[in-house]
Amino acid sequence: MRVPCLTLRALLLPLLLAIASALPAADGDHPALWRVDGGDSTLYLFGTMHLLPEGHTPLAPVIESAFDSSDVLVLEMNLSNLNQAEIQQLMFQRGLNMDGRRLSTIVGPERWPEVRSAVEQVGLQPVLLEGMQPWLAGMTLTLSSLHQLGMRPDQGVESYLLRRAGNAMEVRELEKFREQLGVLANLAEETQIALLMQTAREMDDLESITMQTLEAWAVGDVAAQERYLLETYSDYPDLYKALIVDRHRDWLPQLETMLAEPGTYFIAVGALHLVGEDSVLQALRRAGHAPQRIHGEAD
To answer: Which residues on neighbouring strands pair with residue 171, listed in sequence order?
Structure first.
């Protein structure tokens, strides 16, 4: 079954794209957690959901235990290093049309009414998006929709872990916010338009897709998450390479450096980075390491 609206996550994957809730998992089940040992070092790899609704409770005990035993928290990127004004400035620098073209002109008169209708559906004025490149317009549309569903980045897993880390735990990041924006901004314009149009056409399905996604995540159903990954990018091989393959290639040397250093590292990245043939876990296996999934208490 093709899962609609996954292009919303395709646009947001490097930023805020995974969606989840605090629904209880089945007895004994929890989001997938993996462990890799390297002599005097240990990596815990945890697939996160970046946005959560209000009322999120602590993670499963096995995950909390792994976090408590760790010396360093490693995130895809650490937005706590930037204030909201800096984030918006970077997004506008990479996401506005510097050539003066309007979004409605880029999209074209036949497709623009669909975009305009979707924008109005989430309570925004279409004129606010006219200066944006299609990728930023799609992100704005998606985040506004998630906001209506009560999803907030400040209630997501990464925000929760940063609060748990406080000032007592070292925090690292695998890449910079500017780098992630560059991946999106460098997409071919036609790819950006295609993603924006599919996003606009599938807005009505967002809530049901949110529920499907969180159910798979909450019980650690990696097979379902892998299926979602493949369905998300099946029509966009260039996007898959840019957002998955290339980024994992850049992450691997950093992970291997951690495995060569004494210490315990809790690595929290979007859940879809830990499934599929091009996943971080498969990259570690090809490099000679042996990630093991944790089903019981963390050691």
So the answer is: 73
158 part of a folded domain: yes
Question: How crowded is the C-beta side of 203, counted as CA atoms within 13 Å?
Answer: 26
Query: Could you tell me which of 7, 78, 9, 69 has the C-alpha nearest to residue 33?
Result: 69
Evaluate whether residue 298 is within a structural domain.
no
- Is the model's pLDDT at 157 over the cut of 80? yes
**What is the pTM (predicted TM-score) of this model?**
0.84
What is the tally of structural domains in the chain?
1
Residue 17 within any structural domain of the chain: yes
Query: Does 229 map to a domain?
Result: yes
Evaluate whether 149 touches 208 at the Cβ level (below 8 Å). Answer: no
pLDDT value of position 55: 57
The candidate with the shortest Cα–Cα distance to 8, out of 145, 152, 161, 178, is 145
Per-residue pLDDT tens over the stretch 20-38? 333 333 434 788 899 999 9
3-state SS of the chain? CCCCCHHHHHHHCCCCCCECCCCCCCCCCCCCEEEEEECCEEEEEEEECCEECCCCCCCCHHHHHHHHCCCEEEECCCHHHCCHHHHHHHHHHHHECCCCCCHHHHHCCCCHHHHHHHHHHCCCCHHHHCCECHHHHHHHHHHHHHHHCCCEHHHCHHHHHHHHHCCCCEEEECCCHHHHHHHHHCCCHHHHHHHHHHHHHCHHHHHHHHHHHHHHHHCCCHHHHHHHHHHHHCCCHHHHHHHHHHHHHHHHHHHHHHHCCCEEEEEEEEHHHHCCCCCHHHHHHHCCCCCEECCCCCC
Specify the amino acid at residue 59.
Answer: L
Beginning with the edge strand found earlier in the chain, give each strand of the sheet holding 263-270 in spatial order.
Answer: 170-173, 72-75, 263-270, 41-48, 33-38, 292-293
For 218, the domain range is 6-293
